[in-house]
């Protein structure tokens, strides 16, 4: 934070024609001054104008920083970036802890305004503080009061363009972007820390695929998706028309190709995109894959469960088992040593002992 000085536009009060350095340095936050008075009008309760003696102006030696590229009134660095109350006629009360008899003192000048802005910066988000120079004050206008009245060059000749020395809507030289209304709360763009995951990893034609969003920083508020079809080795990927949801059902054109999905995370600062890992090749409808069952297993029944796995009975071992789409086989012991058959995953049929028939046992 650097005070712009207290001699008006281009230091005209002392006969100069240039603004003060180091306030014009591209790497600093240049702070101008305002006059702040109570006001019953408007919702804020205060009226604020440019302080007539606030420093500021267009440098002829310092390079324009990137965050001022939009401003065409000065081809080099423009002073100021932001402002705060500085008029000694509307002073800031400061408590002195270094031995003065009068502990409370009233002060003015941009040397008061600049530590005020330093306090605002200290309360801002870490991402806001990490931005170079004054960039954060240009990115977040939601916490800034726009100063639209007053001048720091109260002379008949004025300045050209008028925004160099006069307040106006939006950015102007004397007050910069305006005066803060609280801390700057930039979040930063979403950054991906864990890529989206597509499942199943080996797709089947006509069987839906789904993706997670992955893991992101800076609190994304929404996500968009784009599935792509790639060659067998995961290269030459092209967008699939209309495949823009978190699920996608492979079609015949996908067979023997691989798939990838791009997930775009968005927040108030913008967006970033992350890609999933490439899937295995899409298998066609009707392809048969063989898996070895446990030794001596002779399943009396098999069925496709609602979880997408194949379930089977294993009478010799008094177990039921499942085969996942990737070929992983897991068996589960039954509580009674009785043969079992079944018609669906939610039911098991067991002998009724001396009675004739079967009884159905519902599983949890």
What do you see in this structure?
By secondary structure, this protein is mostly beta strands. The protein has 3 domains: 2-180, Rossmann fold (3-Layer(aba) Sandwich), CATH 3.40.50.200; 192-275, Sandwich (Immunoglobulin-like), CATH 2.60.40; 302-362, no CATH class. Helices cover 7% and strands 28% of the residues. The chain is built from 3 helices and 25 strands. Strands 1, 2, 3 and 6 form a 4-stranded mixed sheet that branches. The protein has a 4-stranded antiparallel sheet with strand order 16-15-18-19, with no helix packed on it. The chain has a 4-stranded antiparallel sheet with strand order 20-21-22-23, with no helix packed on it. A hairpin with a 7-residue loop joins strand 15 and strand 16. The radius of gyration is 35 Å and the shape is elongated.
């Amino acid at each position: 934070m650097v005070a712009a000085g207290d001699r008006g536009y281009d230091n005209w009060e002392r006969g100069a024609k240039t603004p003060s350095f180091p306030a014009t340095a591209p790497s600093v936050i240049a702070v101008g001054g305002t006059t702040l008075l109570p006001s019953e009008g408007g919702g804020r309760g205060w009226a604020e104008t440019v302080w007539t003696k606030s420093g500021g102006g267009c440098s002829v030696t310092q390079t324009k920083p990137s965050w001022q590229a939009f401003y065409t009134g000065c081809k080099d660095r423009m002073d100021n970036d932001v402002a705060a109350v500085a008029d000694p006629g509307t002073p800031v009360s400061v408590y002195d802890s270094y031995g003065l008899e009068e502990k409370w003192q009233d002060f003015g000048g941009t040397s008061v305004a600049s530590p005020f802005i330093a306090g605002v910066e200290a309360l801002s988000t870490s991402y806001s503080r990490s931005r170079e120079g004054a960039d954060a004050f240009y990115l977040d206008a939601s916490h800034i009061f726009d100063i639209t009245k007053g001048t720091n060059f109260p002379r008949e000749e004025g300045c050209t363009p008028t925004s160099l020395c006069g307040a106006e809507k939006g950015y102007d030289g004397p007050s910069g972007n305006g005066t803060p209304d609280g801390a700057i709360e930039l979040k930063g763009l979403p950054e991906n820390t864990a890529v989206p995951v597509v499942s199943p990893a080996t797709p089947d034609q006509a069987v839906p695929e789904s993706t997670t969003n992955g893991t992101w920083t800076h609190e994304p508020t929404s996500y968009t998706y784009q599935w792509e079809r790639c060659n067998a080795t995961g290269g030459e990927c092209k967008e699939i028309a209309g495949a823009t949801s978190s699920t996608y059902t492979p079609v015949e054109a996908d067979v023997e190709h691989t798939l990838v999905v791009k997930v775009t995370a968005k927040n108030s600062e913008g967006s970033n995109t992350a890609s999933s890992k490439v899937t295995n090749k899409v298998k066609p409808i009707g392809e048969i894959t063989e898996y070895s069952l446990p030794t001596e297993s002779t399943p009396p029944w098999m069925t496709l469960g609602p979880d997408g796995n194949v379930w089977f009975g294993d009478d010799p071992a008094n177990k039921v088992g499942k085969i996942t789409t990737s070929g992983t086989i897991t068996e589960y012991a039954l509580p009674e040593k009785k043969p079992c058959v079944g018609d669906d995953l939610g039911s098991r049929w067991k002998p009724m002992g001396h009675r004739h028939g079967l009884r159905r046992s519902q599983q949890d």
